[in-house]
Each structure stands twice: as structure tokens, then as C-alpha cells.
Amino acid sequence: MSSKDLRKRKKWQDYSGANAAKAERDFYENLKEYFEESNSSLYVEPKPSELKSIYVDFPLDNMTQEEIYTPDQEIVNHGIRPDYVIRNKDNDKSLYVEVKRQDGWVEGKTRSAGRGNAHERSCKFFTPGLLAELRKYGNISNEYLPFWTVFQGDISRDPCRVREVSLWYKGCEGHFFFWRPSHTVDELISHFEKNLEHIIR
After folding, report:
1. Which whole-number Å values give the CA distances from 44 to 54, 56, 88, 178, 187, in the listed order?
2. Measured between alpha carbons, how far is 35 from 30 in angstroms, rounded to an integer?
3. Does CATH number 3.40.1280.10 belong to domain 3-200?
4. What residues does 88 pair with on adjacent strands?
5. How far apart are CA 86 and CA 134, in angstroms?
6. Rounded mean pLDDT, 96-121
7. pTM
8. Residue 19, pLDDT above cutoff 90
């Protein structure tokens, strides 16, 4: 990759990072205000830390352990940090939340504008091992998925990415929400109340 391409990539990363941070703040501030005003036992917390080392102590068989690299310095942090967690202080249940903001193919842009992969990375929560960990730490029964993904930005209107996400979550539609520019905060809250609140009550 040329230095010119690297500069362009850095500029795009700075732009997308700033927009992602704004999307996450908007989600947090709105949910925080909603829970506080409704005197709810629920509250939203950014960057929960209980999962930050879940990979560290995952056991490997002896042969695998011998075949992989073992660094001299002990690994102490290796896990995940969801964007948010919605907790119920009355029963210690927690629902983990990812807010994904991504560019997409919309009016005035080329199809390549939808090249990001944040939506693909969100699918890690569907993996059997992580599902088990999220349920364990969130005190959620096996009948429910322990997470919610909120998509923002142009991806929420991209005809290809919307179809991808909708297929991936087929049968679990309540666990994702396209928070489009045309949607109000009330629609976000309504989605949570209708599809997810009962999981942590």
C-alpha cells in the first residue's frame, strides 16, 4: 500500500471513528435519560469490564499448547468489551449492547461505499462459546440471546447490508435495530421495550 493510500485510509479511520463515537454517545445519553426519567430498576453502563479477560484462561489441550507461540510475558487482558450493558439492579441480569455505525451504499455514493465490516464483526456474539459466556455473566437463561445490536449510519439504508444483517438475524429480529435517520428516539425505546426488556426483568 502506497503512502498516499495509507494517508487516505488514516483519514477515513479518523472520520469513521469520530462518527462511531458520536453514535455511541447518542445511544447512551438517550437510554440513560429514559431509564432515569422512568424511575426504572434498569440502567445503562458503558464499556462493561467483566468480559475483558474471558479468553485468557480458556483451556487448550496439551498438544495445541505445545504447537502455538507462548510469549514470555503473561497475557492478562484478552477478551471483549461491548459498547454498553443494560443492567437490572433488582435481579443482577444484564443485556450486552453493540452500537455499530458504518458507511453504506446510499444515494450519491457508489456501491463500494458499503465496504466496511463492522456488521460482520458483530456476528461474533452468535458463536456458541461467546453466547455461553454472555449468558453466564449476564445471568440470562438459555432461551434468550443475551445481546442487542444497534446499527446506525448509511449501513441502515444500504440495500445489500440491510439484507445481509436481516438474513443473519432471521428468527432473532428483536435483537437488532436499524436506527435510521428517519427514526426517533421513541422508536429505539419502543423496540427495546417490545423485544428485549422482558429478558432482564
Report:
1. 22, 26, 9, 19, 18
2. 9
3. no
4. 42, 93
5. 13
6. 94
7. 0.86
8. no
